[in-house]
Specification:
By secondary structure, the chain is an all-alpha fold. The protein contains six helices and two strands.
C-alpha cells in the first residue's frame, strides 16, 4: 500500500470543521454498530464490536498524529491546552472498552479480523479527507492501492475463517 499509494502532502492538523464532521460520522457509525450488536449471535456481535474498535483506533491514530505535530511545532506542554489530548483519552478509552467487549464474545476471529481491517481503512480515510493527504494519482497507483486494500481485507477474513474451521474440527474429550 505504501509503495503503490505513495501518500504525500496534507496538513498538520485538520480544520475544525473537518474534525467536527469526522467526529460526528465516527460517533454515529460507532453508536449504530454498538447498538446493533445487542442481541446478536456471538460471531455477529464480535464483528460489529470489532468494527467499532477498528474505527475508533483509526481515529486515535489521527488524533495522535495531530498531537505529534503540535509537540513538534509548539513543544510538549502545548498538548495540555489542546482539545486533541482529551479527545484522544476518551476515544482511546472507548476503543479499548469496546475491544474487550468484542473479545469477550469468544468469537476472536471475527473480532480481530474486523478490527484489523477497519483500523487502517479509517486511518486512510481520515488522512485523505481530513488531513488533505493525497495518494498516488496515476491509474497504476490507484489500482495498486485498491488491490492492496482488497488483498489485505481478503487475507484477514480468510485467516479468520480458517481459524473458525480449525476450532470446529477440534473435539472435546468426552464428546
Amino acid at each position: 500500500f505504501l509503495v503503490a499509494g505513495d501518500p504525500s502532502g496534507g496538513r498538520d492538523d485538520p480544520t475544525t470543521r473537518a474534525w467536527i464532521v469526522a467526529g460526528v460520522v465516527i460517533g454515529l457509525v460507532s453508536a449504530g454498530l454498538v447498538i446493533g450488536a445487542r442481541g446478536r449471535s456471538p460471531e455477529v456481535r464480535a464483528a460489529m464490536l470489532g468494527s467499532t474498535t477498528g474505527i475508533l483506533f483509526g481515529a486515535t491514530a489521527a488524533l495522535t498524529k495531530a498531537l505529534g505535530e503540535l509537540v513538534s511545532d509548539d513543544g510538549f506542554t502545548a498538548i495540555f491546552t489542546a482539545w486533541h489530548l482529551y479527545a484522544l483519552l476518551v476515544v482511546g478509552y472507548l476503543g479499548t472498552a469496546i475491544n474487550q467487549a468484542s473479545l469477550q464474545t469468544g468469537a476472536l476471529a471475527a473480532a480481530i479480523a474486523t478490527q484489523t481491517a477497519l483500523m487502517p481503512i479509517t486511518s486512510i480515510a481520515l488522512g485523505v479527507l481530513a488531513f488533505d493527504e493525497s495518494l498516488h494519482g496515476s491509474s497504476a497507483g490507484t489500482i495498486g492501492v485498491v488491490a492492496s486494500l482488497v488483498l489485505m481485507i481478503a487475507g484477514l477474513f480468510y485467516l479468520a475463517n480458517a481459524e473458525q474451521q480449525d476450532a470446529k474440527k477440534v473435539e472435546l474429550p468426552g464428546s
